[in-house]
């Protein structure tokens, strides 16, 4: 279970008082009476941002571990838990999530594990967790039993801490269905202490208010607080158990936790980033946390994670909660983009119900390494104009690309060819088309919530290891008319994206300038217009959206209801049904008007209807431009006569024979890949043996 090393590093933390600096201060860590021993971790160079963790001299790896008579999980009725260790050992344990110490309760008889629903909600009583003001959460939330135990000898030394979570009287299947449960154990002072608590307003808020009295009048999401602080000094040790629907544990290990997000850090339910580090015990979580999460290179599933995020929904936290996972799922098959895969989970902190979250992949250099087998030290990642992964000088790689593309005429073939060596044009075209289609009002167009990555030194087996920049999708919640009741579906965001008057004034080299310069090239313009068409016709086709809506709503609805009750957002009275209805209204309306936006923005010629089918619907599909088609039923979409489309046979569908066209001209009907010149409504058939 727990790593032995973690006890040597963390056990003294329960006796500590950490004074951590706010805002830009460097802070410090006084969690131990002895100086923190971090030299070995630094020498290994495993985690450049790993927190400094003290050594507890009382840990003895040779002492026995405590044996539990029961495994973590759900139990119908009260249980009796027995603990045992070697002769002469004293077992001490805690029930509040903290690590046991020499002063913790001594185990003398079996521990009664009961249904704790009626117990006082210790964590919920903390009210100073948002600048929006206090609220009154229910105190009868569901609770589990967390037991952390270690064997001590007569000298005060102890063996490995063993931790388990037991839920009694909760009908797991009825309550959570096939959704995993994540149990987080943490010293509660690490969450709510005035100085070091990462979940509270705390000292940072008071100091920020004292700096300028006018700060108090700002909206709550603009307030500085303990929970808005960033960096390794604001990471706290936790123990995490991940319980699958069948009752088994997928993984259980020590990790680090931070709050994350931007404005949504001010919410009562905050997003959390969980990170595995060698300093805590294991460098990765080595299991398939997210079911069927295919690697980006197509070589099997992702089997290990350096970190992952429990996401509260961002801007959508108090509305539908499904916005970002739904929208990203619509483009998950686009190989030109990185998208975050997800699974809903139900969280408990120190045994207390903490609502449902969407567990999502966390972008980092390790994410690239785990998806492509690329050396993470060769990964450069830019987030909102700043180096997120890589070295300080790597910003020049972005600046050089920006300056070349924006300062030179991209209509010139030679200039455009050089630009194509710097950035993956299809990736940028698809990324822009996606953000425009969903009417993202906090995106690359405004200079926010954009990421791109590349390898520093090109070369290697992976196709993406060519040194070109590629786009990464995340945080799409401020979209689809979230604050307009879904009624701005007819707003032409294409014009906003291509207009030079729409700029982000605080960004020195806004990436939207790159996009606008590239639009001067006819090849890129054609690629982008086809991406816009594909986004509407394929990715957000009405039937596909409806199916995804139905599946996700059925999964999320019962979980969100309890979460709204627990955290009391002002929109809770509307419920998931109402808020998802508004989201669906936007996407329905968007589909109906989007082709008019393309026509109005670019005047690309006559619009025609293209139907694609296969000779045998059981055989599979095809790829239109860069997006896969499911041809189990006929595909139909609208395109323009000014721009040919490209069709590629699906090698998994069987032996390809030919293309047949009625009303269109094919460049080569016998080739797997054919270009289709459009002049009127047409039908193209992929013939397979």
From TrEMBL:
Pfam families: CHB_HEX_C_1, CotH. Keywords: Signal. Residues 26-42 have a biased composition (Polar residues). InterPro entries: GH29D-like_dom (IPR059177), Spore_coat_CotH_CotH2/3/7 (IPR014867). Residues 1-23 form the signal peptide. Residues 71-115 form the GH29D-like beta-sandwich domain. The keyword 4Fe-4S does not apply. The keyword Ion transport does not apply. It comes from the Bacteria. Residues 23-58 are annotated as: Disordered. This is CotH protein.
């Amino acid at each position: 279970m727990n790593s032995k090393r973690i006890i040597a590093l963390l056990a003294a933390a329960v006796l500590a008082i950490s004074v951590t600096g706010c805002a830009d201060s460097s802070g410090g860590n006084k969690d131990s009476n002895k100086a923190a021993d971090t030299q070995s971790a630094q020498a290994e160079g495993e985690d450049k941002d790993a927190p400094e963790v003290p050594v507890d001299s009382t840990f003895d790896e040779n002492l026995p571990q405590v044996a539990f008579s029961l495994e973590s999980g759900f139990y119908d009725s009260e249980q009796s838990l027995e603990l045992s260790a070697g002769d002469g050992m004293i077992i001490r344990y805690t029930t509040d999530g903290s690590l046991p110490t020499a002063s913790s309760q001594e185990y003398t008889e079996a521990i009664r594990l009961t249904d704790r629903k009626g117990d006082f909600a210790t964590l919920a009583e903390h009210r100073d967790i948002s600048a929006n003001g206090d609220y009154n959460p229910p105190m009868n939330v569901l609770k589990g039993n967390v037991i952390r135990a270690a064997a001590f000898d007569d000298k005060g030394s102890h063996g490995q801490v063993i931790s388990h979570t037991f839920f009694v009287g909760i009908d797991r299947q009825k309550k959570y269905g096939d959704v995993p449960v994540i149990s987080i154990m943490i010293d509660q002072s690490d969450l709510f202490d005035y100085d070091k608590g990462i979940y509270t307003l705390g000292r940072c808020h008071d100091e920020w208010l004292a700096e300028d009295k006018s700060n108090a009048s700002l909206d709550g999401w603009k307030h500085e607080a303990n929970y808005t602080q960033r960096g390794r000094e604001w990471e706290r040790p936790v123990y995490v158990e991940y319980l699958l629907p069948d009752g088994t544990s997928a993984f259980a290990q020590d990790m680090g936790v931070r709050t994350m997000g931007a404005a949504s850090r001010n919410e009562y339910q905050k997003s959390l980033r969980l990170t595995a580090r060698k300093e805590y015990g294991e460098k990765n979580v080595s299991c398939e946390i997210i079911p069927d999460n295919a690697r980006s290179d197509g070589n099997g599933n992702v089997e290990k994670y350096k970190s992952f995020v429990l996401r509260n929904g961002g801007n959508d936290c108090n509305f539908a909660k499904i916005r970002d996972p739904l929208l990203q799922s619509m483009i998950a098959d686009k190989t030109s983009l990185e998208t975050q895969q997800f699974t809903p989970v139900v969280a408990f902190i120190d045994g207390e119900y903490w609502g449902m979250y969407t567990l999502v992949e966390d972008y980092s250099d390790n994410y690239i390494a785990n998806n492509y087998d690329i050396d993470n030290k060769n990964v450069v990642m830019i987030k909102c104009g700043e180096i997120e992964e890589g070295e300080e000088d790597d910003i020049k790689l972005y600046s050089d690309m920006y300056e070349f593309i924006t300062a030179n005429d991209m209509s010139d073939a030679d200039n455009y060819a050089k630009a194509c060596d710097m950035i993956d044009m299809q990736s940028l075209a698809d990324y822009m088309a996606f953000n425009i289609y969903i009417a993202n009002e906090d995106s690359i167009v405004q200079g926010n919530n954009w990421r791109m990555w590349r390898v520093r030194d090109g070369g290697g087996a992976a196709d993406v290891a060519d040194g070109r920049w590629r786009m990464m999708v995340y945080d799409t919640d401020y979209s689809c008319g979230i604050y307009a009741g879904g009624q701005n579906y007819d707003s032409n965001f294409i014009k906003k994206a291509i207009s030079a008057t729409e700029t982000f004034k605080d960004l020195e080299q806004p990436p939207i300038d790159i996009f606008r310069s590239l639009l001067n090239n006819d090849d890129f313009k054609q690629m982008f217009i086809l991406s816009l068409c594909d986004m509407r016709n394929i990715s957000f086709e009405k039937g596909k959206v409806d199916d995804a809506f139905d599946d996700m709503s059925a999964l999320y609805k019962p979980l969100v209801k309890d979460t709204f009750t627990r955290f009391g957002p002002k929109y809770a009275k509307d419920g998931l049904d109402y808020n998802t209805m508004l989201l669906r209204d936007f996407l329905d309306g968007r589909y109906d008007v989007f082709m008019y936006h393309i026509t109005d923005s670019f005047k690309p010629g006559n619009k025609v209807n293209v139907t694609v089918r296969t000779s045998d619907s059981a055989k599979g599909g095809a790829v239109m431009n860069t997006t896969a088609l499911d041809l189990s039923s006929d595909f139909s979409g609208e395109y323009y006569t000014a721009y040919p489309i490209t069709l590629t046979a699906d090698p998994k569908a069987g032996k390809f024979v030919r293309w047949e066209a009625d009303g269109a001209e094919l460049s080569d009907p016998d080739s797997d890949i054919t270009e289709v010149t459009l002049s009127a409504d047409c039908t193209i058939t992929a013939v397979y043996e």
